[in-house]
Amino acid sequence: MTDTVETVEGSEVNLSHSNMSESAKPHHPPNPQAKGEKSHGSDFSYVGIDAILEQMRRKAMKQGFELNIMVVGQSGLGKSTLMNTLFKSKVSRKSVQPNPEERIPKTIEIKSISHDVEEKGVRMKLTVIDTPGFGDQINNENCWQPIMKFINDQYEAYLQEEININRKKRIPDSRVHCCIYFIPPTGHCLRPLDVEFMRRLSKVVNIVPVIAKADTLTLEERDDFKQTIREELRANGIDVYPQKEFDEDAEDRLINDKIREMIPFAVVGSDQEYQVNGKRILGRKTKWGTIEVENIAHCEFAYLRDLLIRTHMQNIKDITGSIHYETYRVRRLNESNGHFSSHLSDHPDAQQKANGQPEQQPGGLHANGVAAQHEALSHEM
Amino acid sequence: MTTNMRYKSRIPVKTEESTEEKQYVGFATLPNQVHRKSVKKGFDFTLMVAGESGMGKSTLVNSLFLTDLYKDRKLLNAEERINQTVEIIKHTVDIEEKGVKLKLTIVDTPGFGDAVNNNECWKPITDYIDQQFEQYFRDESGLNRKNIQDNRVHCCLYFIPPFGHGLRPVDVEFMKALHEKVNIIPLIAKADCLTPNEIKKLKDRIREEIDKFGIKVYQFPECDSDEDEEFKQLDKELKECTPFAVIGSNTVVEARGQRVRGRLYPWGIVEVENQSHCDFVKLRNMLIRSHMHDLKDVTCDVHYENYRAQCIQEMTSKLAQDNRMESPIPILPLSTPDVETEKLIKMKDEELKRMQEMLNKMQQQMHDKDQ
User: Does B78 contact A232 at a Cβ distance shorter than 8 Å?
Assistant: First the structure.
């Protein structure tokens, strides 16, 4: 559902409904001086509250958005190519390196590349976090640990900013919003490594599993494979995005159920264009045909793109912020609380600084109680 | 191999005998005689397939030999795979074509490379190969050598995933552990996910890395200089094509008006036997039609001999340590099992003799009765 608002400049802007629904709407009095407002002066009962949408949109345009995507998977599964395809520009680590050397690193590295992309006046700071070396060694035990650590470090950095006495107006958000996990298209089932990784990480970050290089599976094999994967995810208690428990209302549930029926998306990536039927499309040309990346009869790339960018981007960020990050924060504060209670007895001064956490303990245990703690948090850890 | 040649010479006797034919002895028919005997005896071939699960190994084997060896296979799910270890499973099938019998044994290695920790996951495989060599060594040194069963692995097809940018650490380690025990033929599996450019790049990269790591894969024997040009050209093409990029299929589809083995995609049909689509035909020709015998020869002459030499060396060095007399080698590998089988054979022989005598007696009695 989109709202169309005409501005004075005459350009039409489409707003995505989901963009606005989850954001908290501060209660400002309706501003009748908003330019470009449709004249409803004759409408007796019109107050003008909906003009808030326009104000928010303008503010968001000024501020720009941030999106941090992590890609995880064995070497050669097309991670960099998929990122380039998703954002239709060279955003991957390989495009940035002057002489990309395709060798397998001895240990996992975490490489973060940021780009500023713009479309129709909307600016986005896109950060792609690559994890070369994951799953490539002979012994891959605990190869998920560096990744867990990185994600938690981002939460920690955000937490530190948040609890500062003098906080920045806009805390730079480096938290990983979404982790795309690439499953090799074996056609049989998930491998032990896949299960181990997703089980651990689905608890700290939104995981979107995709079947990589899906042009090696026929449609029948693809459906069987997807079904097997879904069953195995269920059997192992792995909650991938969109998580069932975070559906807000029936409408959301309906949309998300449809998505859940389709995951994992079978994707093919390409950054080369070919001419097919007079159109220039992204694809892969083989001796037996050309695979069109954006053709939903060929692969499900379009669904993935729609999910990640066009419909659920804000939702992904919200869940990261309001659920994963909060879980981390609560755990962290509880840990340090235990640390502090031993100090409180020694330092009476510290008691004033320490924000009365002991009293607010019961509220702090619930994610909802965080709002109350916002004002109280003023001490430095 | 001793052959009792009692064949009557089948040389066509010409009415006019030229001077050259008078000097014709006739042993030029030896190859024919060997051929006839082999056809009667049949051939055997043991092929091992190794690679991660989901690389299309079973499908390729079925496509190569036009059989369905894996009908009743049950695939493990992810949970079961977590505790899976590498197993060795043998499938044997008798194939006959134009009167020639082939006893084909496929040695499968499920579980290889699938675990999170794949340290030394090739050990069960090297142990198996060594066991077969040891078995053959014992048999060869035993007393009854008439019916030695040759279970040695003649060739190992190693499936390299097409998703990588070359060889992975596990590929390198596996091939290095096995290249002196068995003929390794590396293959690029599931090649239908690569464009022609990507295949070329990957093949070049893999060949480079094989050289770099000193891996000795199976080399095609050089052509004889007196072979014709066409054969030489084919041979050259074959050598430049390694590692073969293969695709397998269990299904038959309709393409260009014909029924062919292939895979049906929304964007086109991949034909397994189309040389411009993949190297399956080259692999089949090489493996079965032209080099099967050479693979067996290399296994016998090179890999087995290496093993044997190593084994004997170990034994003699052990002997030297034990300070025992150096006894002639053939006796050494004889251990109690052989002696027991000898006893059994003797017992059975005696039993047979007794039964024969009883039969004779009965026949005599009947004969007397009749009279």
Answer: yes
